[in-house]
């Protein structure tokens, strides 16, 4: 049986180890919660970047539509000015020259309108591709953050488990050592008691033989 001091040391060791293991586990939980928050922010940032890209693309298309309408209006005004000028100069509007001029003006206006639409489509595509990439990058960052949080919690659990195992081993070794020490002490005390109780018998026997050194 262990002595009270050994038992006290064992209790303190067990409590200290348990508190340390609990602290390690709670630290892992806190780290996982932190990285989950970071991941949520990264996911939200990616979503906002994508929505901004969609809005920019939409605004670009609306701007192109407006420019197209403006281009048609300007082209119509140019054509009207050309017809007025030809009439003023006595040129028949049904003549080849008049028709060629009108056709050329119309072709130029159509090409300008197509260029406006093409540029708008290219800008829109680039904007959306950039938004998709940024969202993907943020999603990857969020995934990595969540993985980091899971790894932190797993590591904390392993540390806590190892601490509990080491604490249990330390308590067990303390108990064995205390028991062995108690048994050894009791055996030594018993041997000394036996030796002391036998001494008077030897003294009496020596006195009976006439030796006075034992008086």
Question: What would you note in describing this structure?
Answer:
It is a single chain. With 215 residues, the protein is mainly α. The chain has one domain (4-194). 92% of the residues lie in helices and 0% in strands. It has two helices and no strands. It is rod-shaped. The model is unreliable at 185-192 and 194-215 (pLDDT under 50).
Keywords:
215 residues; 2 helices; 0% strand; disordered C terminus
What is the strand and helix layout of this fold?
Blueprint: H1 4-88, H2 96-208
Helix pairs in contact: 1-2
Query: Largest sheet, if any?
Result: none
Q: Which shape, going by the Cα principal axes? A: rod-shaped
SS-derived structural category: mainly alpha
Helicity range of the residues?
A: over 70%
Rounded mean pLDDT is 77
Number of helices: 2
Low-confidence region ranges: 185-192, 194-215
Radius of gyration: 49 Å
Q: How is this structure best summarized?
A:
It contains two helices and no strands. The chain has 215 residues and is an all-alpha fold. The two termini are 42 Å apart.
